[in-house]
Design goal:
136 residues; 26% helix; globular
Length: 136
Amino acid sequence: MPDDTAAPARRMAEHLTLIVRAATAGDAGLRWVSALTCVRRPGRRACPGHLAVLRIDVPPSIEWQCTSCGDDGVIRGWEHSPFDLRAHTTDSANPGDDVQVIIDAEVAATLRGLTLVDTAGERLVFRARKSEHGVP
């Protein structure tokens, strides 16, 4: 975005790119609750909700909704953008046992803020889901 973009527009764009990254890191056709927190502030208090995302590949769209306040939207035109984390046939997968680690929400947010070198690493970070014990 241009340097002179207004702060509210920049924050909205950043919010939407996080949603695209999360939705494209997961499987298409399956609604799931991501570790992304809602950015709304009803009554000037942070909304406690997380964003449920659903990616539909034909026609391509991403639907999202807050689990608490109900804020929602649809994103189109995200395909092949720098934020599209869908696996491609050229991506190499490492066979082996899956390992699950539970981290707290702050660590998950920090990981989402990092610039990672490979798409597979970003997919791992953005597939994180909310659970009662932390973020697996």
